[in-house]
Amino acid sequence: MQYQNTLAFAQQLDIEDSLASFRDQYYIPNKNGKPYIYLCGNSLGLQPKTAFAAIEQELKDWAELGVEGHFNAKNPWMYYHHLLTDKVARLVGAKPSEVVIMNNLTANLHLMMVSFYRPTKTRFKIIMEGSAFPSDQYAMESQVRFHGFDPDDAIIELKPRDGEYTLNTEDIIAKINEHKNDLALVMMGGVNYYTGQAFNMKAITDAAHKAGAVAGFDLAHAAGNLQLQLHNWNVDFAVWCTYKYLNSGPGGTSGVFVNEQHGNNPGLPRFAGWWGHDEKERFKMKKGFKPMEGAAGWQLSNAQIFPMAIHKAALELFEQAGMEKLRMKSEKLTGFLEYLLKDVAGQNSTVNFTIITPSNPTERGCQLSIVVKNDGRKLFDHLQDNHILPDWREPDVIRMSPVPMYNSFKDVYKVGLAVKSYLNRETTTH
After folding, report:
1. What pTM does this model have?
2. Positive or negative CA dihedral for 356, 360, 364, 365?
3. Among 41, 272, 325, 426, which one is most buried in terms of CB atoms within 10 A?
4. CA torsion angle for 356, 359, 361, 366 (degrees, to 10)?
5. 367 and 287 in one domain?
6. Which residues of the chain register pLDDT less than 70?
7. How confident is the model over 296-309, as pLDDT tens digits?
8. In a domain, 206, yes or no
9. Which of residues 300, 320, 340 is at a domain's end?
């Protein structure tokens, strides 16, 4: 697409946008009655207007039915996760039996590690990106120590080439091949939280399997952002949160994918709980764990009804919009933001920022990260003063995420204007 740095161009794209009406399905934060341009969907998605009614229904059933709500509520709590399964499976490219909603992300990651990190004396190493989200780093460190290994020896962190910010797929695969004799697990983010780089999950999975290792992914920044095909890519397992691009509330529930080849293996070691036991026999209260088939066999406790109610409301909007259309709009929105940033930079000789997110649309989602030299907090504060909410990551990165579900092309155009006004101010000051 040939972009133009004009308001008329942005407005025309909004007119042509078949998803524009979804913006009205979300509450847009505001200050003194003036809505923000919200670019923090990569950190916390906006509230669907249907979320309140979804929770209210469960509160009503709890008030009127008490414990009988497990079987007689409008959405019986006993089977609540089933209400989410088909929609979640379509969202991440999985079979329904391969997904389940439960717990929170890092708890689920640890549960997956119990089953899929099975180190031996000779095959015990984990490959992960060096700048992974801290929670993933802590999980890997603690799991390695739990098995009696030294993280400095067992964890191989992938680093960009000198002078670069992101990883090359060929370097990732080369490192996997280098450690084919001692590698137990490749554990990557689907999208790196800091740079916004989307990894080639199929190529990484294929390389891991060829090396005799397991392939797992943290999809916190990928679910609801990228078009995923976890089953077709033959990924072993994946976990994700639902409060970022999936708009399901702060601290919301989490999703799990377990490939059917593992989900149908009752002998695979796991930490068990009664909600993962065969639901046809669950209330017989007998000893002897008999896991449900598929990812549901990893459940521990009964469903988190209120977070799941919000997630159910959010998923219904994804069903209506369609992930393919959302992804198409996302590429246009992010491409427009990239164009505007480069255009205003080209108009100013004092530019002090660099876009570190890959320019190739297949290697990124909604997010653009910019490294800002010489006190980037000034630009960040300037954006906030102009009713724009990106987010800041130490030491010098501003992350901006134009989300296709509720951001408009006019939003993005205004971001370009705000950056331009900051650069002009800096030029005048100096």
Report:
1. 0.96
2. positive
3. 41
4. 40
5. no
6. 348-351, 426-430
7. 999 999 999 999 99
8. yes
9. 320
